[in-house]
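README: folding subset

This subset contains proteins for which both the sequence and a predicted structure token string are available. Records are stored as plain text. Below is the entry for Enoyl reductase (ER) domain-containing protein (367 residues), shown exactly as it appears on disk.
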Amino acid sequence: MGRMEVERKTIGWAARDPSGILSPYTYTLRETGPEDVHIRIICCGICHTDLHHTKNDLGTSNYPMVPGHEVVGEVVEVGSGVSKFTVGDIVGVGCLVGCCGGCSPCERDLEQYCPKKIWSYNDVYIDGQPTQGGFAKATVVHQKFVVKIPEGMAVEQAAPLLCAGVTVYSPLSHFGLKKPGLRGGILGLGGVGHMGVKFAKAMGHHVTVISSSNKKREEALQDLGADDYVIGSDQSKMNELADSMDYIIDTVPVHHALEPYLSLLRLDGKLILMGVINNPLQFLSPMVMIGESMIKKTLIRRKMITGSFIGSMKETEEMLEFCKEKGLSSIIEVVKMDYVNTALERLEKNDVRYRFVVDVEGSKLEA
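--- output ---
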């Protein structure tokens, strides 16, 4: 990537401090290098991670910060070395915009685990400039981290797939859980969780939604097609489901106990953690060894607690094709940029079905 020669500006909505409140912000957009794609942003999904970063929940935020890592837009310029994209293509950008290219994860096309990965925003690019996200008019991204949106897929439907979608698809693929006939649980029915139900059902699984209340029962069973719904505090129902699931995808982004859900897993079952939680999670070691208290006489039930982090670029491409093939889409609420602060407040209260998408193209970004 060459050094800046001609300064060009763009405008986005940025947080200036841990209040997390966004407002118009003009900043320099880097030049289009040989391997870069210049994208006019059409829309961008809102992820729970945007809340964490804008409010400095993880203690790593740098301001001003333009959030947004579920970006869909139109290619308006390509560098001389770009071969995958042409002007006019509809493309997407997810959570990452850079990696080292030489470490073990990178050599295995798992750039999301690269120790030198570069985030789409709240990071520093190789030219020393801060990265800014998709709540803006434009972005410039290396072609490795850009994907084509399948023809015929609505842009606002594609946006949540670039984070929420691939975050669920990746562990299902990696852990060999794409085969039909499995029984799975989806813990938490938000942006990621509702895609988990859709993917698992499309793969031929029996799916149980595990939630904290009955609020989403009808939606889970009727709108998303889940096979069962259980409230985690309903001990009788939880006991009925003990030792019945091959996996549970845990999307809950706040601190919670793990033992109740470990009891639902079969031998070699997997509890896959996805929520970004800034407090230690705890469990009793017998829960992953024999499944219950050592005092009780139980069969040995080897179990796994593991994590999964977004997905690779290859998995993102596979996931988009899977969605096209199966006709999958996310359930969204489209908003304008002047509503984004309200949307973030509602997201914090879990008041969204199931993903906000900002209509950037149709919004007035200037003050």
